Amino acid sequence: MGADVLDEIETWSAERVAALESERLAAQLAYVAGASEFYRRQWAAAGVDSAQVRSVADLHRLPFTEKQELRDSLSEEPPLGRHLAASRTSLTQVQATSGTTGTPSFFGLTEHDLHVWGQIGARAFFASGFRPGDVILHGWGLSKGFAGGVPAVRILQQLGCCVLPIGGEAGAERLLTIAELMQPRGFCTGPNFAIHAGQAAQEVLGRAASTLGVEHVVVGGEPGGGIPTVRDRIESLWGATCCEMLGNSDVAPIVFAECPERQGMHVCSQGLVHVELVDPASGAAVPWETGATGEVVLTALDRQASPLVRFRTRDHVEVLGTDCACGRTSPRIRCFGRTDDMLIVRGINVWPSAVRELVIGFQPLATGNVRIVADFPGHSTERRLKVRVEHAPDLGAHQLAGLADDLSRRITQVLAFRPDLELVPPGVLPEAGVNKTMLVDRP
Ligand SMILES: [Zn+2]
């Protein structure tokens, strides 16, 4: 019996996938060289000829594309930049990506580009348990033009699901009311919102979320779904499986997704987006071996409007395995941080998401809500890093002191920096909302 996958390519050998991707890469690079002024300039400046790249193994000859280059391209030629490689009239959608500066950047998509996104995303949602014909409650933000919004709705429709496009902005009360009425089999949203809505069910509906009949919760858009305690909480609140997915809004909203084994996210973009793993410092290729870590670099293999080649995602991942009981042959990864978020404390790299993961391990004494206070410019400090941790209600002075000591010791042991730790009562730090939970406060 074959594996339970949407597309047979998910079970191909790495060699067979590479052969197909090499063929498509050559065609895509020829298209990009002809249609993208951005890449013509970039490759000329680097003194490389894209025609010499004949396979994915040759891809390293081309330079990386950095987010900053896209921002420069956008400001040189607003609103869609010099990397727009299709006519404006051929676009059917314009999407936004959030910038670290708060100003959104925009890129275009043709009908064909949306279809390719749908192919990848449909494999991913299928891997996580959604099936054609399922009613799916959509609870990611819909109003800001981000990839988890309308694109995710469309991907679910391409899989053949019946979508309830309510969006996280509607709030837990409305989403829960609709869930009770429509009995969706699946729910997709951010991990924090899944917990928030799951906890609110008793008060809003007078019944536990686990009685609503949701079988699969899919989370993404922010870190958390890969943390065992967060996943366990979502699964017990909803009485459902919880799978995580990860994408990159500049290249494809969904690239990686977990299967029912829930042992890390499979690459789901075979033949459509090529995924490289590189050493973030040297840029050298990192082999896909269990335990390897590196930064994800993506190349669109079939993109018309805003094609990107060797785009540095800044997502740092660990390879958890290269085979799986589900039958998928692609590697499984877990994202442990983004370069953009990384802080350097006395020369030690500190990922805020790693601090959060560690604090979550102290539940129920800590609520899991945590903020790092970056009271210094840039990303680097020589002082002790201020970490605010919310403690559970009704703890005595003795318990509080013990918690502070244990947390400080654990952070020092595991993350190699000694925090300036402050315990705060529940409710002091902002609640997890629809939008990404910001782990770093800049006073
Ligand atoms: Zn699997």
Walk me through this protein's architecture.
This protein is an alpha/beta fold. Helices cover 30% and strands 24% of the residues. The longest helix has 22 residues, at 14-35. The site of zinc ion has 6 residues, from loops. Zinc ion binds at residues 259, 261, 266, 324, 326, 328.
Bound chemical compounds: zinc ion
Please report the number of helical segments.
10
Helix content: 25-40%
Per CATH, the architecture of the largest domain is 3-Layer(aba) Sandwich
Topology:
Layout: H1 14-35, H2 37-46, H3 67-76, E1 91-97, E2 105-110, H4 111-127, E3 135-138, H5 150-159, E4 162-165, H6 172-182, E5 186-189, H7 191-205, E6 216-219, H8 228-238, E7 241-248, E8 252-258, E9 265-267, E10 273-278, E11 293-300, E12 311-321, E13 332-338, E14 343-345, E15 348-350, H9 352-360, E16 366-373, E17 380-381, E18 386-391, H10 397-415, E19 420-424, E20 440-441
Parallel strand pairs: 3-4, 3-5, 5-6, 6-7, 14-17, 16-20, 18-19
Antiparallel strand pairs: 1-2, 7-8, 8-9, 9-13, 10-11, 11-12, 12-13, 14-15, 16-18
Helix pairs in contact: 4-5, 6-7, 7-8, 9-10
Bound molecules: zinc ion.
